[in-house]
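Summarise what follows for lecture notes:
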Amino acid sequence: MTDSTSLRSIPWRPGLEIWMLTAAVALVQGSWGVSAAQPAEPNAAVRPFRIRVGQAVLADLDRRLDLTRFPNRIEGSNWAYGTDRKYLKQLVKYWRTTFDWRLQEKMLNKWSHFKTNIDGLDLHFIHQRSRHKDALPLMLVHGWPGSFVEFQKVIGPLTDPTAHGGKAEDAFHVVIPSLPGFGFSDAPRTRGWNNDRMAEMFGKLMTRLGYRRYGTQGGDWGASISAWLGRNHPDQCVGVHLNFVTAGPPRGGDRQFEGLKPQEIARIRERRAFMANETGYNRIQSTKPQTLGYGLNDSPAGLAAWIIEKFRTWSDCEGDVEKKFTKDELLTNVMVYWVTGSITSSTRIYYETRHSRGRGKRGRVEVPVGCAIFPKELVYAPRRWAETRFNVTHWTDMPRGGHFAAMEEPKLLVEDIRTFFATVR
């Protein structure tokens, strides 16, 4: 994700079968500490959910992969024109012959999944409570082309820190929603579901779960959603942790670099040069997502090519995507889009955010904000710029890592989350 509206001051701007369990609402609410005096909302039930994809969906996927028609290519071009054909052929073969969705499904289902209806949409989320007393509720928010799958490596360390090198006072109750239109959450059927509206929905989710005080964390679209919650609900959101920080210079023209260190200026220029060839997806997803969707929703190989090229290009992998992600990790994330048919609705967040006016107040985020700056993130905003938008109380320049921090460098991210939120608990 590159939110063009938040970067406009920068010069380079350029079917599914699911088995669902049912439970008494009173028992669910009681286990989460929701006040009995809290008024009930229509359709406010929080329902346990289990991922179970129909065998017919998997058989259809296998057939489509077998019939993939790969395009020709320029000799020796590798990844220069986009996803490398040789790599994609290898991945599709692995997908058909080795990848085990049922195993991945089992691994995903070890977490506590739920659904609840908010604003007319069924919202899917993981709610993993800590066994430790006084754990702080923390919402982790993904972006595009990620999903809730991004956070699998950090759930355990955050909810059970004593089993992962931390202390009991580092514990969090973790909530990981799937954005509307993504994965197992409903796709909006009306206009206007931009990032602000999604943030508003997530605030309602935390209230419904009985959390009157919580933190948020996110990258990509999850960063803008997390920032929205901190800015508009400071009475509930005690702190915001970001691994994707966007902020333009306070002055334009020749004065844009005023007050910055030479290494900061060099890093800004390097990232701008990198992004010069990385905004094509943004342009089409923010203008004609439906046209794009017909192809991506019909071809699993095409979908994988569209998504995995971003994982390679946006991560700190030195050109070898499997240096940071296994084939199983890459394909599990792609599968979430495929089995739910959600790629088209997921890309609409770009269109809606570009064409819809914000619903909440704007301005500086005044609650404490922690920033984890990974060297291969898409954009770079020095702290001087970030402080114009955020009340930055914590800043870490990471030694390695890129856009998908929770998957690439989970230990670094977890430690930074613990350190920041220790200041606001």
